[in-house]
Amino acid sequence: MRPFWLEQALNAEGGEPCAPLHGETRADVCIVGGGYTGLWTAVMLKEQNPQLDVVLIEADICGAGASGRNGGCALSWSAKFFTLERLFGIEEAVRLVRASEQSIHAIGAFCEKYAVDAQYRLDGTLYTATNRAQCGATDGVIAALERNGINSFSKRPLADVQRMAGSAQHQEGWFSPAAASVQPALLVRGLRRVALQLGVRLFENTAMVGLEEGRPALIQTPDGAVRADRVVLAMNAWMARAFPQFERSVAIVSSDMVITEPRPDLLQEIGLTSGVTVLDSRIFVHYYRNTPDGRIMLGKGGNTFAYGGRMLPVFDQPSPYADLLRKSLGQFFPAFAQVPVAATWNGPSDRSVTGLPFFGRMGSGGNVFYGFGYSGSGVGPCHMGGQILASLVLGLDNPWTRSPLVDGPLGYFPPEPIRYLGSLLVRNAIRRKERAEDHGHRPRHLDVRLARFAAAAGKADKG
Ligand SMILES: Cc1cc2nc3c(=O)[nH]c(=O)nc-3n(C[C@H](O)[C@H](O)[C@H](O)COP(=O)(O)OP(=O)(O)OC[C@H]3O[C@@H](n4cnc5c(N)ncnc54)[C@H](O)[C@@H]3O)c2cc1C
Q: What is the DSSP string of 103-135?
């Protein structure tokens, strides 16, 4: 079963996968993984240096991972400002917030330049509170953004918030125009088409099964190999199992999604008529938006945790939390309570300790680069990832290659079974805390303290 968006995109496309690699081939650069990270890197490399011979291998088809199944909410790093400042200092934090906003616009410009219809809508985002306890949660970070001259958010009157968001559940809301929504699989498949157009040699159904470092490095596949001067590992959640040194750098956690059948008439009625993305202020946020054909999509992260970073079969099945999602959908939108659900699905997110992705080079040769750890917030940031990885591959000296983002993982989770048991402990404490707050009760002190472990990375992580 392919997730809803990917199925929709493949039906619209009607094409065939690229042939797998048979035999050995030589390349300047070999990229492993055909999601946003790998494909942005490939496209940017070819745009900057058309002569470069770039091979991309993908274990399945491009977009089969998180990029073809996410919520399509392209958000900036504004809400992560405190984390960025704490880790990297004020100057870099300001630069990264600005760069993350530029990426939102650059995705739109890319779609326009190459006629990629990814249903890109630059209609902004609303960060809201859905209970009294959440009210005021966003104020501090917005004040800090304001102090540093990078604030794009403004507080909106409650009636406007409820109308724009289509739901009376919201009790306050901050709006920023610097956010977009996309049909995620159309974007990743569009990137694939452009990569091919620019001359990237793409092999699908071709997994990397071994990597021998060296100059050139040797990337082994089931039926062949690529010898490449430089390698980019863009395998997202799969990195944790493929390379033992990364096992504890991320926790693999699901984001679960539901989408309704189209009811454009009801959307008109409730007011959710733009492509605005809406996020509440939970630790594992509810996030939702409409689609141009009149559906509502709603997602929530932090449900299934994978022991030891394993890729669980459940990640490719309908969401085991479908009932919970339907219930949330009905609470946000009573008018949609009886509208049939078209699909539910889920997928793995690579949550880092900081909630930020990290990049770097590994091995003795210094020619193998990687980037992952987007923590459920990668639609916009993967465009930054592409700039970072392309800059590293080209050996450039620029703000991306000088950024502390390229210093590798900035923290590690404890070893198993502590990470798994600890994750469940924290998740369950968050659930109890937020349930109490939804009912206007005071949460238990211990639950509040445990919840802080997850809250540290900041808002807007959907995994
Ligand atoms: C359900 C869900 C909802 C989300 N919602 C949002 C959202 O609304 N907004 C947002 O900003 N972010 C969201 N995210 C996160 C976002 O989708 C990811 O951060 C982003 O897609 C990561 O892109 P990527 O290219 O790094 O990884 P992926 O798209 O996962 O690509 C990695 C690719 O590597 C391939 N691969 C793995 N191993 C190998 C191998 N050995 N050889 C070759 N290829 C290999 C995989 O098949 C896969 O195609 C969501 C994630 C999920 C799962």
A: HHHHHHHHHHHTT-----B---EEEEESSGGGT
Under 8 Å CB-to-CB from 277, ≥6 apart: which residues?
Answer: 71, 73, 74, 75, 123, 124, 125, 126, 179, 180, 181, 287, 288, 289
Distances (CA, A) of 174 to 96, 121, 167, 300, 445: 21, 19, 15, 20, 28
378 is a domain residue: yes
Question: In whole angstroms, what is the distance from residue 460 CA to residue 463 CA?
Answer: 9
The pLDDT assigned to 295 comes to: 98
- Cα 461 to Cα 349: distance, rounded to the nearest angstrom: 10
Query: Is 463 strand, coil or helix?
Result: coil
Look at residue 461 in the predicted model and tell me its pLDDT.
55
Instruction: Clarify whether residues 196 and 333 are in a common domain.
Output: yes
Q: What pLDDT shows up at residue 459?
A: 44
Residue 360, SS3? Answer: strand
Query: Into how many domains does the chain fold?
Result: 2
Distance 36 CA to ligand 1 centre (A): 7
Task: Say whether both 401 and 425 belong to one domain.
Answer: no
pTM higher than the cut 0.85: yes
Q: Among 296, 297, 462, which is best to mutate for testing ligand 1, by the most ligand atoms less than 8 A from CB? A: 462
Give the CB-side neighbour count of residue 106, counting CA atoms within 13 A: 18
Q: Answer yes or no: is 193 within a domain.
A: yes
Note whether 299 and 448 are same-domain residues. no
**Whole-angstrom distance, CA of residue 238 vs CA of residue 247:** 10
In a domain, 463, yes or no: no
For a substitution probing ligand 1, which of 31, 238, 250, 344 has the most ligand atoms within 8 Å of its CB? 238
What is d(CA 196, CA 16) in angstroms, rounded to the nearest whole number?
13
Helix (H/G/I), strand (E/B), else coil: 193: helix
The pair of structure tokens assigned to 428 is: 């369950």
Nearest to residue 434, comparing CAs of 424, 445, 443?
Answer: 443
Quote the pLDDT of residue 301.
Answer: 87
Which residue range is the domain that position 450 belongs to?
Answer: 418-455
**3-state SS class at 450:** helix
Please identify every stretch of the chain with a pLDDT value under 50, giving residue numbers as ranges: 457-460
The string of pLDDT tens digits covering residues 33-45 is 999 999 999 999 9
Residues 255 and 355: beta-carbon distance below 8 Å:
no
Give the Å distance between the CA of 102 and the centre of ligand 1.
Answer: 21
E strand or H helix that includes residue 172: strand 172-176
Q: For position 457, what pLDDT does the model report? A: 46
Within-domain flag for 411 = no
Which of 374, 383, 461 to mutate to test ligand 1, by most ligand atoms within 8 A of the CB atom? 374
